[in-house]
Each structure stands twice: as structure tokens, then as C-alpha cells.
């Protein structure tokens, strides 16, 4: 089965296919015949996601890759060129990515990242959530196609903001461009590199 691509900010954000699930009562997603878990966690609204992005000054990409065909590479390239964030890469099997050092773990970073953007398989997500808590990150963001309520519970219990199954690149580009998302409009339409509120 091939991956799916979602266009945003000029390049695709490719992710593995995720099985669809029928909608249950109160709009919650039910289990599929293949045994997909119930989705009971409720994510932040569009204004709340914008607030998370505005509060962040640094982003650590866990599972970053130097392979141009990987979704994390597209996201890293976009964030470095079209956002105001300081971007750090976490991959124990890489020395450098996009000309920057790659670190073995979140604990090895030279700074405490505000937002941890995760590109890892489902079984690894609770562990990454705990690492984000341990280093003092402020937000955990699970990439498009990733959903793990155990990871969300770990992060939220420690006071972190949590976003799941969304692409940082796509969300940033939509908000930056003033596009309507879930009825929310930033009112900003510009081709210039964004400066988030509170940044110099």
C-alpha cells in the first residue's frame, strides 16, 4: 500500500496510510474491522494550535531524516526556510541533517526544545512522550498519521500541550497564509517569512 501526500507550502508531507474508522456517537471515531483503537482523545482547536505554534521558539524533530523522500525531510526543510523557529534534529543513526548536527536523543540537545515534533513508529511514541516530559519540553506534536493516546496521556499529565495526527508544516503554512481552517482565519496573507507574535 502506498503512502499518501498532503500538499502544503510547496512540497508534499507524505505519511504512511492510516486505516479509516467510522464515526461513532458524539463524533468520536469507532474501531475498524481491522481492530484500530477507539479515538477518545480530543485535540486542540485551530486557534489553540495556532497559539501552540506562536508560543514555540524552538522545535526538535525526533526521527528526522536526511532522505529527501521522507516526510520529516520535507518538514525540516520548510521549517528552516519558511518559519522563525530554531530547528534541531534527533536521530541516533545520523551525524548531520541538512548541514546541521543530529543528536542521539532529546537529552543531548544543547537547548530545551519548546515543541517536540515526532516521526516515529507507534510503539515508540509513549517513550518519546516521556523523553519530552523529562527534558522539559512544552508541547508534543505527533505527525500526520500518528495517533497514540498513551503518549498523549503521558504528556498531558506533565502539563504539555499535545497535538496528534497533524503536520506542523501544513498547519504553519495554513495559519501563515491566512487560510480558513475549521472556521478560523488568521487574517494574515503574506509571502514573507513569518514572525510569530512575541518574536523580535
TrEMBL record:
Region (Disordered), start-end ranges: 1-43
InterPro entries: CoA-bd (IPR003781), NAD(P)-bd_dom_sf (IPR036291)
Domain CoA-binding: 53-146
Domain of life: Bacteria
PANTHER family documented for this protein: COA-BINDING DOMAIN-CONTAINING PROTEIN, CYTOPLASMIC PROTEIN-RELATED
Pfam families, sorted: CoA_binding_2 (PF13380)
Name of the protein described by the UniProt record: CoA-binding protein
Amino acid at each position: 500500500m502506498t503512502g499518501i501526500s498532503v500538499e502544503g507550502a510547496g512540497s508534499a508531507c507524505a505519511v504512511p496510510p492510516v486505516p479509516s474508522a467510522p464515526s461513532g456517537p458524539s463524533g468520536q471515531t469507532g474501531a475498524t474491522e481491522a481492530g484500530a483503537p477507539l479515538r477518545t482523545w480530543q485535540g486542540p482547536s485551530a486557534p489553540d494550535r495556532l497559539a501552540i505554534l506562536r508560543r514555540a521558539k524552538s522545535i526538535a524533530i525526533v526521527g528526522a531524516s536526511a532522505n529527501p523522500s521522507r516526510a520529516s525531510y520535507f518538514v525540516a526543510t520548510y521549517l528552516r526556510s519558511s518559519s522563525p523557529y530554531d530547528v534541531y534534529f534527533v536521530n541516533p543513526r545520523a551525524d548531520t541533517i541538512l548541514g546541521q548536527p543530529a543528536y542521539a536523543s532529546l537529552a543531548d540537545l544543547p537547548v530545551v526544545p519548546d515543541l517536540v515534533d515526532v516521526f516515529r513508529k507507534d510503539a515508540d511514541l509513549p517513550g518519546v512522550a516521556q523523553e519530552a516530559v523529562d527534558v522539559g519540553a512544552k508541547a508534543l506534536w505527533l505527525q500526520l498519521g500518528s495517533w497514540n493516546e498513551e503518549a498523549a496521556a503521558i504528556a498531558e499529565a506533565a502539563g504539555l500541550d499535545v497535538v496528534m495526527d497533524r503536520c506542523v508544516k501544513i498547519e504553519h503554512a495554513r495559519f501563515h497564509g491566512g487560510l480558513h481552517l475549521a472556521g478560523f482565519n488568521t487574517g494574515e496573507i503574506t509571502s514573507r517569512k513569518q514572525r510569530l507574535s512575541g518574536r523580535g
